[in-house]
């Protein structure tokens, strides 16, 4: 039986389709085998009942990664220091009997009853005295927040302030000399019925720091110290502003410079930091109340 031209063409086309399909399937088989060969072995055993695949430990490697040390395997010379297996077992505590003696300072943990166990009620025996009620001491309240602010007015290097000049300028700025030899500054507005409350004080930087009236004319000092306790009779920010203004007036009239309590020259940044501390004090006092 001879095939005509059309039948021969259909036969060749069918054979071509079969060949192409076989080549495609062979390529897929080759890729699957290559993927399986590249994929590492994940687990040595199947997860048991109740375990998730992520809970089964990966036993392909037995090493740890320690940053710059890299992966430390059991053959590494540091393996005995870092690859340590720790066995954790529950601690069984035996209840201590009332007649047994306790040794050392080890305290036994109290027994915890199961959640569903009925609560046992302890009843006092007839004739037994009632237990004394424990008096609970209330914790002592912490004192309200406060702070001390101090500024210094320093004379130029190798120069000093004179006592008479200090007294003259202090009088112009509203200071009063008290019995202890300190110049004191009170609020500008004073009440007649109540005694004025001190805002800040001024001493000098030579021992003992007080101004003695009988030796004030001979006094020479490298600087003055202005200090105050907050809170005071004025609002904290207003008291700070009055302190800074007074220190500036003293420095201008005496020819000195304003410094902090460590005698470092005061800058605008340092003044802003001091103002921030005073504002923080006010905030903490509002929270304390």
Principal-axis shape: rod-shaped
Low-confidence stretches: 46-72, 76-93, 96-120
Please list the strands of the largest sheet in the order they lie side by side.
5-6-7-9-3-10
| Straight-line N-to-C gap | 115 Å
Q: How many DSSP helices?
A: 5
Class derived from helix and strand content: alpha+beta
Mean pLDDT: 75
* Total beta strands: 10
Strand percentage:
5-15%
Assembly classification: single chain
Radius of gyration from the CA trace? 45 Å
CATH C-level name of the domain at 147-288: Alpha Beta
CATH topology group of the domain at 147-288:
Cell Division Protein Zipa, Chain: A
Task: Describe the structure in your own words.
The structure is a single chain. This protein is α+β, with helices and mostly antiparallel strands. The chain has a domain at 147-288: Cell Division Protein Zipa, Chain: A (2-Layer Sandwich), CATH 3.30.1400. The protein is built from 5 helices and 10 strands. Residues 46-72, 76-93 and 96-120 have low confidence and may be disordered. The strands form 3 sheets. Strands 5-6-7-9-3-10 form a 6-stranded antiparallel beta sheet. A two-stranded antiparallel sheet has the order 1-2. It has helices spanning 5-38, 79-82, 163-172, 236-254, 268-288; strands spanning 64-65, 71-72, 147-154, 161-162, 175-177, 183-185, 200-204, 220-221, 223-230, 257-260.
């Amino acid at each position: 039986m001879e095939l005509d031209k059309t039948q021969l063409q259909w036969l060749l086309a069918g054979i071509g389709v079969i060949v192409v399909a076989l080549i495609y399937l062979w390529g897929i088989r080759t890729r699957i085998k290559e993927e399986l060969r590249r994929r590492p072995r994940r687990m040595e055993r199947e997860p048991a009942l109740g375990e998730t695949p992520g809970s089964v430990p990966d036993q392909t490697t037995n090493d740890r990664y320690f940053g710059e040390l890299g992966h430390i395997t059991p053959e590494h010379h540091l393996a005995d220091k870092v690859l340590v297996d720790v066995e954790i077992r529950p601690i069984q505590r035996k209840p201590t009997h009332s007649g047994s003696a306790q040794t050392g300072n080890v305290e036994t943990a109290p027994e915890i009853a199961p959640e569903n166990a009925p609560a046992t009620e302890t009843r006092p025996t007839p004739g037994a005295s009632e237990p004394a009620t424990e008096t609970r001491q209330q914790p002592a309240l912490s004192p309200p927040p406060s702070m001390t602010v101090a500024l210094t007015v320093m004379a130029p290097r190798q120069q000093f302030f004179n006592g008479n000049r200090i007294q003259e300028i202090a009088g112009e700025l509203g200071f009063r000399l008290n019995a202890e030899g300190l110049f004191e500054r009170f609020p500008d507005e004073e009440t007649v019925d109540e005694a004025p409350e001190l805002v800040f004080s001024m001493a000098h930087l030579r021992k003992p720091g007080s101004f003695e009236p009988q030796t004030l004319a001979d006094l020479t000092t490298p600087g003055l110290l202005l200090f105050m306790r907050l809170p005071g009779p004025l609002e904290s920010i207003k008291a700070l502003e009055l302190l800074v203004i007074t220190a500036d007036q003293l420095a201008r009239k005496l020819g000195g410079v304003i410094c902090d309590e460590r005698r470092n020259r005061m800058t605008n940044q340092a003044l802003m930091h001091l103002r921030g501390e005073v504002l923080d004090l006010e905030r903490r006092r509002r929270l304390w109340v």
